Amino acid sequence: MKQRHSFAWMDLLWVFFLVGLAALPPSGQAPEPEPEFHKYLILFAIGLLQIFEHRFLESLPKRGRLYIVLLKICLGSLLVDHTGGIDSSYYLIYFLPVVTAAMYFDVWATLAWTILTCVTYWSFVIWKLTEYELTGEGAAELAIRNLFFFLAALIVNRFVTENRRQAERYRQLAETLAETNRQLEQAQEEARRSERLAALGQLSGGLAHELRNPLAVIKGSAETLMRKVADSDSITTELAGYISSEVNRMNALVTRFLDFARPHHLEQHEEQLPPLIERSLKAARDRWPDAKVEVERNFAPDLPKIMLDADLMERVFTNLALNAYEAMGREGGTLRVEAMPVTESRRGVKIIFQDTGPGIPAELREQIFNPFFTTKETGVGLGLSIVSKIIDDHRGSIHVTSEPGKGACFQIFLPEHEEANPAA
Question: Is the residue at 243 inside a domain?
């Protein structure tokens, strides 16, 4: 939205000064017997140009400054011409285009505009040479006037240039502070998530260990019962089979709890990421062979090797790929997978998994990495929690961005040649 410039007190000052110029006679002359309408009209045009200069620049952002300076030179020349030419007391009006150029352009362009202004002023001498002779004293006076034009231009340009540099430094400092605040908020969010994961991990681990013993007793009892009544009671055998299969399912769930709760003992080696990602994409394709999903790969050729646990990191990529396939469902879509080096504050690699599914609602984005949170009917809610924990153990980070109806984008950062945090 463009800034609206209203008629302010500065505009009133311009009107006051220009009225004063119009009312006072030139230096060394008697008061004008008749009003000089040409002079009034030119001063009125200069006042309008000054008052509406900002709006003129907004309407012509590219060449507006050039036109403004040219118009001021032309109007100043008209005023000087109508008030005596080279002998006019209004020659000081040329400070207006000189100062304007100094405010809008760099030092070399300012000097060029000042030279053009001085040449325009000196052109009035040519018309007088047919009537008068230019003496040394007159030439010196004209030279002094022109040197003052250059002096004013350089002083104003230096002040404006320094002001711009200071503003640019403040802008860069503000951007740095904004980025630092964003990183701080992100670090705080990751710390809170890690604390939640650690607390729930301890709870899950203790609960899983306590459940395994009674589950083993139940399964052993069901298998013994099946052997005892295998031939005599088919109903009891069937029920015992149900007990055994449900116990197996519970054992699998307990195993997932333990995977989330137990510390990961990382076996790190320098690995290239593309082969790991390709194996994960193949696993997702094998799981969803009929899915109408097109995979777009974009792996930078200069990817560095990363110290990581290949099995655990492949598990991370597989989980993200499976989630993308499941999100896009039968209708299919596009899964874009990218890997690129990062050389900013921390060197490493960024990996992106972006799908074209329904996306993740804004109110759920901070919860999807929490343990036991799921939107699936049959899900447990540990997949992304385990993913987040593995990446945390590698001293990396994972973030999600999403727009409803436009898919989800998971971004992973893994540091280069940095020791992960092997749990004890």
Answer: no
Q: Residue 270's Cα: distance from chain center in Å? A: 32
Which of 73, 102, 134 is where one domain is finished? Answer: 134
Residue 5's CB is within 10 A of a number of other CB atoms, namely: 13
Q: How distant, in Å, are the alpha carbons of 6, 55, 147, 314, 353 from that of 318?
A: 61, 58, 75, 6, 11
Does some domain include residue 395?
yes
pLDDT tens digits for the chain (424 residues)? Answer: 444 444 556 667 767 777 777 777 665 554 555 557 777 888 888 888 887 888 877 887 778 888 888 988 898 888 888 887 887 888 888 888 898 889 888 889 999 989 998 888 888 887 777 666 777 787 888 888 889 989 988 998 899 889 989 989 999 999 888 888 887 887 777 777 667 666 666 666 666 666 766 777 777 777 777 777 766 667 777 777 777 777 777 776 666 666 655 555 678 888 889 999 999 999 988 888 888 889 999 999 888 888 898 888 998 999 899 888 988 887 888 899 999 998 877 788 999 999 988 888 777 767 777 666 666 655 556 678 778 888 888 888 888 888 777 888 999 999 886 544 444 3
Closest listed residue to residue 115, CA positions, set 148, 72, 152, 150: 150
Q: How many domains are there within the chain? A: 2
CA dist., res. 51 & res. 68, Å (int): 12
Distance of CA 103 to the CA centre of its chain: 30
Beta bridge partner(s), residue 306: 271
Is the residue at 220 inside a domain?
no
Helix (H) or strand (E) holding 108: helix 107-128
Which residues span the domain enclosing 54? Answer: 9-134
Q: Could you say which of 134, 155, 181 is where a domain stops?
A: 134
167 found inside a domain:
no
